[in-house]
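ARCHIVE CARD
Drawer: 12
Card no.: 0347
Subject: one protein chain, sequence and derived structure
Cross-reference: see card 0346
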Amino acid sequence: MGKIPESVAARRFDAALEKHDWNRNRYIYKLRCERNQRVSVRSERREVYKALAMAIIAMCDYNADSDYLFEVMCGTHDLARATNLLHRTITGRLTYDPILNALHDWEKAGLIVIVRGQDPETKQNKAMRIFIKPEWFEGLGFSVDELRKILGDYRRWAEKKGLRETAKQRYANHIARVARSNVASLDDKHSLKKLLLKIKRHVLGVKEEEGKQLISDIEKKLQDTESALKTGQVKPSTQYYAAYTAWKNKTPLSLVYPIESTVKKENPGLSGELFYQAMLERIRKDNL
């Protein structure tokens, strides 16, 4: 079993899990009723649930700066290894059916979101991406308001420990690894992306109008900067950079990277303020 991190979020959830009775989890109870199964979960399945939950708590991303909330930052293979449920058959194939079955239960119960994909050439399934829904934590006894407070406590803890930038870099590395590896992508799954963004806004208490206001603010900054440059009221030093940074800090990395890549390809020799001006024009053009 992987060691539970020292973060306040992981510790809170781990403490709740220690006292949790899966037979009293209303989401699991509802699922079993719908399946016409006996209400009580067999002890073997409960043990798998607990082991998997502990691993997920340890591997979960609690950073509100990430594109989406509560992504499990590893694959099912790593979860199986962390729970000591990774087995090798006599033919040498690695199996972890108990983990897959538990994940399937949680997905059907509405507790997690699983992103799946298939390689178009080999037709083989790609590695899954897993996101925990607020209902999963609610099953442990945490309301959305409590989740919001815990994430705030986590942010303050990370800042105090000097780990906030480390968390951002860890997530950036994760996104880059997902992009180049055989992992399911969200690029063409617009409904899933909308769902995950809706979950993030709901948990953080962010209104959809705030996102539209950010675009409006960027456009106003561009207009003000352009006017000021024309009248000579400000020096053309870092105005575009500042406006771009304000947008980037509030935008999912999955949107930032493609924009940067496109602008660099279209303008290979561009640098400095001219580059950031081109970036902002692209953002405004794409209404991002």
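Annotation on reverse: The chain has a mean pLDDT of 84. DSSP finds 13 helices and five strands in the chain.
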